[in-house]
Design a protein that fits this description.
Layout lengths: L23 E2 L18 H19 L12 H11 L6 E4 L1 H12 L6 E6 L4 H8 L3 E6 L8 H10 L4 E5 L11 H10 L4 E5 L24 E6 L12 E4 L2 H10 L7 H11 L2 H28 L13 E5 L3 H10 L2 E2 L1 E3 L2 E5 L3 H15 L3
Helix pairs in contact: 1-8, 2-8, 3-4, 9-11
Bound molecules: pyridoxal-5'-phosphate.
The site of pyridoxal-5'-phosphate has 14 residues, from helix 3.
Length: 371
């Protein structure tokens, strides 16, 4: 007979991003601002800030005692994060990417076959970890415009005894955002359900109202806000994410995580970057301008080429749009050296530098013309 694999993992395959080298990578929503390269950004102040930061990071990493275990509570980095986002450092749990924290929430805050509600389409890792930890996954399908009817979500959660609702806000891949008031409504209406708002893209959200749930994390026993250094902060290589929650939840998360989950080099480099509020603000503004360039460009093309749909309004660093023969268009763009994300009948394009965004728009027009 031999060793039998558990049924839930028999069909699993390792996560594999696109293979090959593509000069323009717009497929993974990373920041296009590479601190270790001199890629032109067309923004002299940001380029100068990047040089200064590069030296600060090198100095900080140079001081790390490589023979010692890291600080398990990541005190320095949690304080720097807290100062930047206006939350106490002791409400913050650091993880090896927010990915690890999603796994921790699904694995440790829930038990047995408890039900997790996902608002689809959404980030696939929520359902992935929920299933891996043998939770029951329930999906609420968003409407045609990717809107969420809160009253329906609340009724469904009550009816099905949902123990956790996990969603990205703003949403990857739709780019849509819920107002802070709406997240608060979920927390209030479902006091015995964990509400996880993954704010990986919140830095790119601009609007007249409040959107982040961070200001009221301390008021609720059932709210966790996830943040990451992989997007607006521009440190995807370091693998660092944060869960922000009140002290009761934070104590449990810190106790349940693996003790040395964030290495010392990551802690040192990330702290050096998180202290630079002005630079990070300017970087986010640059990325927002890039998204606006992409949105306007795709919208203009959609006016000329019926195969292309209008992009959905985006509160993120990417643009999401429908296109006919999606996979063929995606492949043709790859052949031109531009990597995008193909999702059903839509493409998702991450913000690049101003020059990369122009290349993308030119290449897309070429593909639509059959060139
Ligand atoms: C990219 C992304 C993250 C970041 O994950 P890390 O593990 O921190 O790199 C988290 N949530 C969503 C919705 C994302 O798109």
């Amino acid at each position: 007979m031999g060793y039998e694999l558990a049924k839930k993992i028999r069909e699993l395959v390792p996560y594999e991003p696109i293979q090959g080298s593509f000069p323009v990578r717009l497929d993974a929503n990373e920041s296009c601002i590479d601190l270790n390269a001199d890629t032109p950004l067309g923004d002299p102040a940001l380029e100068a800030g990047r040089l200064r930061l590069r030296e600060k990071i090198a100095a900080a990493m140079g001081k790390v005692a490589l023979n010692r275990y890291p600080d398990p509570l990541c005190a320095g980095v949690c304080e720097a994060f807290g100062a930047l986002y206006g939350v106490p450092g002791d409400w913050v749990t650091a993880g090896n990417g927010s990915d690890e924290l999603i796994a921790l929430l699904m694995g440790c805050l829930l038990e047995g076959g408890e039900t997790v509600l996902s608002l689809t389409p959404d980030f696939s890792m929520y359902a992935f970890y929920a299933v891996l930890y043998e939770r029951r996954i329930l999906c609420y399908g968003k409407d045609g415009a990717f809107g969420i009817a809160l009253d329906k979500v609340i009724a469904l959660a009550k009816q099905e005894g949902v123990r956790a609702i996990v969603f990205s806000n703003p949403c990857n891949p739709t780019g849509c955002v819920l107002r802070a008031e709406e997240v608060r409504q979920l927390c209030t209406a479902l006091p015995d359900c964990l509400i996880v708002a993954d704010e990986a893209y919140m830095e790119f959200c601009r609007g007249p109202e409040g959107y982040s749930a961070l200001p009221f994390v301390g008021e609720f026993d059932n709210l966790v806000v996830l943040k990451t250094c992989s997007k607006a902060i521009g440190l995807a290589a370091l693998r660092l994410g944060f869960a922000v929650s009140n002290q009761r939840l934070t104590r449990v998360l810190r106790a349940a995580k693996s003790p040395y989950n964030v290495n010392s080099l990551t802690q040192a480099a990330a702290q050096a970057v998180l202290e630079e509020k002005a630079f990070l603000g300017a970087a986010a503004e640059y990325l927002i301008r890039g998204r606006e360039q992409l949105e306007a460009g795709v919208r203009a093309l959609a006016g000329n080429y019926p195969a292309l749909g209008e992009p959905t309004a985006s509160s993120t660093n990417f643009v999401f749009f429908e296109v006919e023969n999606t996979e063929a268009v995606w492949r043709a763009m790859l052949e031109k050296g531009i990597a995008l994300r193909c999702m059903g009948n839509r493409l998702r394009v991450s913000t690049g530098t101003a020059a990369e965004n122009r290349l993308f728009l030119q290449a897309l027009e070429g593909v639509l013309q059959g060139r």
